[in-house]
Design brief:
Number of domains of chain A: 3
Number of strands of chain A: 18
CATH architecture of the largest domain in chain A: 3-Layer(aba) Sandwich
Oligomer: homodimer
Distance between the termini of chain A: 23 Å
Largest interface: A-B, 76 and 76 residues
CATH class of the largest domain in chain A: Alpha Beta
Strand order of the largest sheet of chain A: 8-10-9-11-12-13
CATH superfamily of the largest domain in chain A: Succinyl-CoA synthetase domains
Structural class of chain A: alpha/beta
Shape of chain A: elongated
């Protein structure tokens, strides 16, 4: 089998020198205006708005059709009404465009007639040497090339690649994670996939040297065999965090009307995902929780967690959760326990794992730092889960101690919802994942351990 | 069996006419100061600080010992060091105190010696006609009597009763829920339970006419048979949301060092909880998620959910989640679909369940209102799960429409974390539970449906 050069093949979508925005608009409230604002904000250089009635949009010269543009056009983003899409594709092909992204909805997700149109669109594009992303998608976010999504994801490049069959999910995921200091290499909203599919983009992200972690939201996959084989290979070098939906009968109904995708049965998918080493999650919240752990922390050498807590209550339930998730909460060596006893006040504390530092930590959060360093050296422990009541002092102690250890560390803070947000930002920015509930921290660590084990076995 | 009059028996703990704070202090950073501040802020009337060295604390006359107080004392809260506790109990008994709350830690959770001391404390109290809560607890929160916990829970009375073996959990739970508009009848931190146990307080809350919903955090239960029987009876009239921890070997180790409790095996407990109709949860976050649904919404007539969404992606995964949780996402009647089609724009929407209102809702959130009212009348639907992108208009539309229906409704908002908090407060205050992820909303609705089914069967 000749190796497909996927990076070269999809390059026009990620590194276009010029881009035409077909259906750009200066009118507030129109999606064409929203995209204009986004591209101007992102500072994309060779931007050509296309609009039949406007000759200038927000200070940028506009053209009536793509063929009127006096320059080569690498990529187009089509925002026109459904009825105009087919004609526009033909013009793009005539112009020699290589990449076509179709934002317009109202095709395959509406039924068989729309599916037939999609097949025709794909045929025309491919015969003309172009490829299509979409329809019914929000396009491609590639900060290094100045390609934005719809809102304020930021244009700093990072190591996370996203491929999502839902545009709103891709948009929200990148927005929320950006606020927590995560940076993205590329994000693709693949929509109805009349031509290029999530599996193509998975292959691209697998090869892409800028992408170290892959996040994927999938409803239905057209080529399950290729997905499975690719995912197995990619997982050996990069983690894939995936939410596979639409596996139930009603879920499949929703997926069909959402992106026109064919889903598949739950048990089959669960097996495929596990076998391929995929980090399988079941909600957007869980995608983010996992992403923070994989983005900010190293992989653990094993499954043994030390739970370190100030407030006593949460440690018990967190221990239960760890064990249910297949982690171990082992006893500590006598040397470590001796060191812990010296570091902690005598009353109300416990040097057994889970390690209870007691409410003394509220006035003296320094204790956390010393205990983290001791457990960083304990041979029986692979990961640390630190539970606190928050506060600025707590944060700076954790940040400092985390620098001295080489094991994954996650924090959970039990506190008012309001103040949580601030702590969250500050610790995350220092590369320490923080969760509003210790059970969520335990789940994220368990995913790290599961994947580390897959990597050791493969 | 003579029926125990639990309300009268425990009355001194909830409606004391006078209270002595033994170990009160004016020194900042001392727990005795924190409690003084809390009682003064709560406006508790007959408060007697006890301190050997201070004759006045924050403007309130203090006494060297409880026996020096020239008034009858109903309830005492002991904050003294462990070594002074036994003597203080004897003085309380001599004074004719009926209720003793021991905040001091360092007894049964430390080992056998502490457990022996606890048995002695309980014996002395009971022979003297008093009962003990604790040691190692934060006491009792009863807003109608002016009894505060440690922080700013607020002193407005409501219908939720809490019994928790963890003080920090009781404190955090009541604090966070208060911020979301939930109000409490009583909350008890039962600690090491040398005398009165969580089961006693469960019985109390079951009989208490002010309590309509019970929330419980449990590590170990001393009398499993009585717990089981009581829970079964209470669940027939009031929901019990319970987090039972410490069921794993390491969890039991944590529980032993935390409150000295004996836990028990996981599968046994799972069966007990289910059989007793208890709403079993596995984290503080899940307690809160459930509480909001039970507090703000009625019980559903069945398990059939309508999912109504603006952003398309989340509906598919939410549908999967509902089905995995044993809910149904049924097809709608032709009449309802016809009405829905009239209420929605034609392109990009779906009148099938899950109902996709499309991104049109971003500019025209009114669509949500009409669709909610239509599904409020659909005979095939018992509950509504509404997913949106937030915003003020979205909120007011939901609030208004929710008034017109008689079915449980939960909302989930997919948006920036920062802006979530505000939406959260505003909708919650109007009695509409809102979740940051639709899968969490689905879980809460599933618990409502499970409990409603238990009530129909029993």
């Amino acid at each position: 089998m000749t190796k497909r050069n996927i990076l070269a093949e999809l390059d026009p979508f990620f590194h276009p020198r010029s881009l035409a925005l077909i259906g750009a608009s200066s009118r507030e409230g129109k999606v064409g205006r929203r995209f204009m604002d986004a591209f101007l904000e992102a500072g994309f250089q060779k931007l050509y708005p296309v609009n039949l009635r406007e000759s200038e949009i927000l200070g940028v010269k506009a053209y009536p059709t793509v063929t009127d543009i006096p320059d080569h056009v690498d990529l187009v983003l089509i925002l026109t009404p459904p009825a105009a899409v087919m004609g526009t594709i033909k013009e793009c092909v005539a112009k020699g465009v290589k990449g076509i992204v179709i934002n317009t909805a109202g095709f395959g997700e509406g039924g068989e007639e729309g599916k037939e149109l999609e097949r025709e669109m794909a045929r025309i594009a491919r015969e003309g040497g172009a490829r299509i992303v979409g329809p019914n998608c929000i396009g491609i976010y590639c900060p290094s090339s100045g390609l934005p999504f719809l809102w304020s994801q930021g244009m700093e490049s990072g190591s996370v690649g996203v491929v999502s069959q839902s545009g709103s999910l891709a948009d929200h995921l990148t927005l929320i994670a950006t606020r927590s200091g995560v940076k993205f290499s590329k994000a693709i909203s693949s929509g109805n996939e009349c031509d290029l599919t999530a599996v193509d983009f998975l292959e691209y992200l697998g090869e892409d040297p800028d992408t170290e972690i892959i996040v994927s939201y999938l409803e239905g996959i057209k080529d399950g065999g290729r997905f499975n084989q690719l995912a197995r290979e990619i997982s050996k070098k990069k983690p894939i965090i995936a939410w596979k939906c639409g596996a139930s009968e009603a879920g499949a109904r929703a997926a069909a009307s959402h992106t026109g995708a064919l889903a598949g049965a739950v048990p089959i998918w669960d097996g495929v995902l596990r076998g391929a080493g995929i980090i399988s999650v079941k909600s957007l919240e869980e995608i983010l929780d996992c992403l923070y752990a994989f983005y900010f922390q190293p992989l653990p050498a094993g499954r043994r967690v030390a739970i370190i807590t100030g407030p006593g209550g949460p440690a018990v339930g967190t221990t239960d959760a760890c064990l249910e998730l297949g982690l171990e909460v082992p006893r500590l060596s006598e040397d470590t326990k001796e060191m812990l006893r010296k570091a902690m006040p005598p009353a109300g504390t416990s040097a057994e794992n889970p390690i209870d530092l007691s409410l003394a930590t509220v006035v003296a959060p320094d204790i956390y730092g010393e205990v983290i360093r001791i457990l960083g050296r304990e041979g029986n422990i692979d990961m640390l889960l630190v539970i606190g009541s928050g506060g600025e002092q707590f944060q700076s102690v954790i940040k400092e101690a985390a620098r001295d250890i080489r094991k994954p560390l996650a924090t959970a803070v039990i506190m008012y919802l309001e103040s949580f947000i601030q702590d969250y930002t500050s610790l995350m920015e220092s590369g320490i994942p923080i969760y509003p509930d210790p059970v969520r921290a335990a789940r994220a660590l368990a995913k790290l351990a599961d994947y580390a084990e897959f990597r050791r076995r493969s």
